[in-house]
Amino acid sequence: MRRLSPAALADLPAGTGPLLPPQDTGVGIVHLGIGAFHRAHQAVLTEEAMAAAGDASWGICGVTQRSTAVLDQLGPQGGLYSVLVRSAGGTDVRVRGPVRELLCARDDPAAVPARLADPRVRVVTLTVTEKGYRHDPATRRLRTDDEEVRADAAGRPPRTVVGQLARGLQARCAGDAGPVAVLCCDNLPANGEVLAGLVADFCDLLPAAEGERLRSWIAANATFPSSMVDRIVPATTDTDRAEAARLLGVEDHGAVVTEPFRQWVVEDSFAGGRPAWEHVPGVVLTGDVEPYEAMKLRMLNGAHSAIAYLGGLAGFAHVADAVADDDLAGFVRRFWAEEVVPTLDVPGGFDVTAYQHDLLERFANPALRHRTAQIAMDGSQKLPQRLLATARDRLAAGGQPRLTALAIAGWARYVTAGTAEDGTPLAVDDPLAAELARAGGGAGGGRAATEALLGVRAVFGDELPADPGFRALVLEAASALERGGVRTALKEALAG
Ligand SMILES: NC(=O)c1ccc[n+]([C@@H]2O[C@H](COP(=O)([O-])OP(=O)(O)OC[C@H]3O[C@@H](n4cnc5c(N)ncnc54)[C@H](O)[C@@H]3O)[C@@H](O)[C@H]2O)c1
Ligand SMILES: O=P(O)(O)OC[C@@H](O)[C@@H](O)[C@H](O)[C@H](O)CO
Known about the structure:
Domain Mannitol dehydrogenase C-terminal: 288-478
Radius of gyration: 23 Å
Bound molecules: nicotinamide-adenine-dinucleotide, D-Mannitol-1-phosphate
Protein name: Mannitol dehydrogenase family protein
CATH class of the largest domain: Alpha Beta
Strand content: 5-15%
CATH superfamily of the largest domain: NAD(P)-binding Rossmann-like Domain
Shape: globular
Catalytic activity: D-mannitol 1-phosphate + NAD(+) = beta-D-fructose 6-phosphate + NADH + H(+)
Largest sheet: 6 strands, parallel
Keywords: Oxidoreductase
Number of strands: 12
Domain Mannitol dehydrogenase N-terminal: 28-278
CATH topology of the largest domain: Rossmann fold
């Protein structure tokens, strides 16, 4: 079958082509970490903004960080790829064309700061996963003892994300390239503020005068808006690519799959201008993203992680199957209503009851096939904002966050047990895997392993594990998991 390319656009089924002629689109955005999510979320919304405003200057230069996979997929296709939007009712497909250039940071590290220094680039976006920031999840500070970070600060062409940003901003300063906004689109709370702090930490590693010059340039010329991003985008499978080919009549190696829902709440603070996202359904431009971020991270992502660990241990490979289980669905409902919602500062006019109902429906989407193992990945980087923040706030208010504690104990068991309850091996894919194995490995997933993991400071910090109430709830849940597995632990926690 013929491959998707600019030449193949004329033969696509009616209504499935890009909204703008790709060849007329100029690059105004550099995106670090061009994975599946960026292609199904920010890239789509930006293409729609360009089409709505008749401004084709916001095309994207996508940077892959560690492999050439996306370059190999999209390069021969002239940057084109399709987005399959799946619901119980069927699949909609459209080819998208906002990605105009591709770079591989691993193979050509010097090219990234150079591309960031182009005066036509006025926005830098990022989706590099939580671990890509090389920060300590508990303190949210740059790990300045990280060898790669130190090597970047010593002056090699940068290989870390924060190094790329700092060197790129430095190159903008040197070339008088003008103001720019750096927009984090990863699932981290206060993500703009945190990223600005990480770049400042990097400045501290530079020779004093150089660090000071960069800090002053950033203060005058760069903004770091925060944003809350929401659209479920599972990793693409061969079955998905086969469906894209069937629907389009051409092979698409870069296809991505998602749900109809999309939301992007963006702090409207762009030093160098921005695409006209205000025209795009699903985008909210606001002065304060924080309430939306906390709500999404604690509700959606908190429940996702709970489902990934407890559902994964119970043998559910996909989210939709896990929430079809009455015990797990009941757990999620009560986790939200009794433990998460009371910790939230719900944005004015927002219907949090309807939100819970809609979230469960999104999780239950039978067409998405979102793997629990994908969500379980990198738990050490996710736990603080998804589960520990809720536990901390409930304890401070005198509550007993039993269900949150069970999800945390589920994580500890998942990363130390080795196998799910049906004997299926559980892979631990986590940047702290070695430390987690050292701390709790030999203990075989039981209460002792959980107790040992509470001592991992990068995840739990100092205060929470020292709180007797927190320890008791998590260890009680760990004992229940050890005694009777997920089913027993769920019943006990729900009865408690
Ligand atoms: N997939 C979703 O449903 C979804 C939804 C909301 C937000 N997000 C955010 O987007 C991120 C990426 O998701 P995705 O689905 O695109 O994943 P993906 O695996 O398709 O892409 C991940 C990208 O991050 C880069 N990356 C991974 N590890 C890195 C590291 N250690 N250092 C630097 N770069 C690294 C990769 O090179 C790749 O470009 C998530 O971690 C999350 O923060 C995803
Ligand atoms: O992408 P991650 O690895 O940060 O988290 C996995 C999922 O919880 C996440 O991707 C959600 O699907 C997403 O945040 C929905 O908007």
